[in-house]
Amino acid sequence: MRKRALILVVLILCGLIGALPTLAAGDIDAALDYLKGQQNADGGYGSGFSPESTIGSTADVVLAIVAGGGDLALFVQDGNTPLTYLAANASSATSGGDLSKLILASVAAGENPRRLGDVDSVAKLEQLIGADGRIGAEIDTFVAHALAVLALSSAQRSIPD
Fold first, then answer.
1. Model-level pTM?
2. One-character DSSP codes across 77-90
3. Given a cut of 50, is residue 120 above it in pLDDT?
4. CA atoms within 13 A on the CB side of 107
5. How many CB atoms lie within 10 A of CB 157?
6. What is the C-alpha separation between 129 and 114, in angstroms, rounded?
7. Mean pLDDT of the region 16-37
8. CA angle, 8 as apex, 5 and 10 as ends, to 5°?
9. Which residues does 148 contact at the CB level (< 8 Å), separation at least 6?
């Protein structure tokens, strides 16, 4: 009896494990649909604290869409996409965190981070490298520094010691 129960449990687990990719794909589609519903008219996304679009939140959503296999061109509100929002606001990015996210989103979307919105975000970020190797403005946190390392690496730039 015990052996039959164990075999039954193993068969059920194998069935569930086999169904996981299908279940996960449905969750990704639902997540992408949710993101479409949260998009602002300017093409961007709010931070969750405020409905106004921000560079950081919009870049995060671009990364999520690309990671989920979504098509950025399908995320359009009033003719604006997340990339058009980022391009229109690239010149206002001054913190290491925003510049890093802008670079990461550009690269993930197949755009040149040195040209998005006619701004060289890579050069702007490199100007924030301190003599001690810290990357970022005074307001930037350790997380922003870590994002800057990833952003510079994704742009094929050297990382300071």
1. 0.82
2. BTTB-HHHHHHHHG
3. yes
4. 17
5. 15
6. 17
7. 73
8. 110
9. 96, 97, 99, 100, 125, 128, 135, 136, 140
